[in-house]
Amino acid sequence: MNTVTLLPGERLTVSNLGREGAVPAKITQAAANIIATVRAKGDAALHRYAAEFDGVDLTDFRVPQERIDAALEQVDASLIAALEKAAAQIRDFHQRQVRQSWFTTRADGTLLGVQVTPVRAAGIYVPGGRAQYPSTVLMNAIPAKVAGVERVVMATPPQRDGGISPATLAAAKVAGVDEIYLVGGAQAVAALAYGTESIPRVEKITGPGNAYVAAAKRLVSGDVGIDMIAGPSEVCVLANASAEAAVVAADLMAQAEHDPLAACYLVTESPELARGVEAALEVLLAQSPRAEITRTSLTDQGTIVIAPDLATAIDAVNTIAPEHLELHCADALGLVGSIRNAGAIFVGAWSSEPLGDYVAGPNHTLPTGGTAQFSSPLSVDDFVTSSSVICYTPQGLLADAPATQTMAQAEGLWAHALSAGLRRRLIDEGAPAVATKVLAEADLTAIAWPADDAATVASGVGRPTAQGEVR
């Protein structure tokens, strides 16, 4: 692991981290070509890419419903128990995120509010390259179902035999996935975003994937909703001398074994702990079945930051803005308020990050690559839309029209002001006053921009006439 030693008064900077970004330009171009081909040729393109990238010849992309229904018969009972426990705790956590539509009325009778509506169809992408990820199925499908999404569609790459991992299929059954398609990579994102002959389009796409998936999600964003552009997984451990070196080492490896590009950070005030962690890594790596991937990640992407004091260490953590943050410190809970940027915060020595990956309940689909500075974990909110609801009464119109017209005049938007001005005229003088023939002879600019004084703009023009109230 690379070591950065900060001197007193020195701060960690983003340039110290050497991040490259989630999507290289050449991959973006390749993904763009794939998307264009899928849009033009539909299922034919998917068949071509399945043969080219996955080495399979599929007659049908969709997994039959009877296979989904029988999924739990194909896996060990202990895995079913784990999936069901995880699903229950994920569901319980996300149910607390559900927002209700709300409405309020002002004294003049104007009704304002928000209507919350689930999207009709959501596509979840589940990777299937280096490993199988049933946990990703749960973390993406359950919030969608809690939100009320009618159609939850899963896309995952086919295995070499043209099938699907039994564990992934079982997770889909437990999570309530409605449709499963064996399509991977950028082509899966394109199919979900635009539809093909056999895959109806969705309105939102979530879930992690490789750089091609990330590039494709960025490219289709705007035509369809996405959750985030996810890069390689990462963890940051903030630890002091009270931490157990071997435990910290294992937690760093838990991220490093995902991917050679996974990033691992250790931030500490203790050079002795840093040396202890490096020694422990060698011992643990000797027995790791994923040693090659793990060592490559730690060597190429790992960074140890040695800070002169706790304040500098916390500042370094906020600069890293990690996907996962572990606080291995004596007063870990007391430090939470100092953390500004992190996707998920694991507090104290007993809060192993893999617990969050699988069963704790909060979502493990998290912002990466420093985007925790402005992004949040996947949640129920990702699967709903909010519509503002605005319903004026005549009294409310008269109260707010002068301010509306004054602001429209300042922006030079004549018809904006006229829209409010004609309603004032309708309330004051009745329907004949806004008849087209009458308006043809009227000074419409005077109606649009009546030059109301400041008191009128602030307070409105008073209650409507009896005639207005009747209407």
From TrEMBL:
Chain residues that bind NAD(+): Y125, Q187, N210
Binding site for substrate: S233, Q255, H258, H324, D357, E411, H416
GO cellular component: cytosol
Cofactor remark from the record: Binds 1 zinc ion per subunit.
GO terms classed as biological process: L-histidine biosynthetic process
Pathway: Amino-acid biosynthesis; L-histidine biosynthesis; L-histidine from 5-phospho-alpha-D-ribose 1-diphosphate: step 9/9
UniProt xrefs under NCBIfam families: hisD
Annotated function: Catalyzes the sequential NAD-dependent oxidations of L-histidinol to L-histidinaldehyde and then to L-histidine.
Full protein name: Histidinol dehydrogenase
Record organism: Collinsella stercoris DSM 13279
Organism ancestry: Bacteria, Bacillati, Actinomycetota, Coriobacteriia, Coriobacteriales
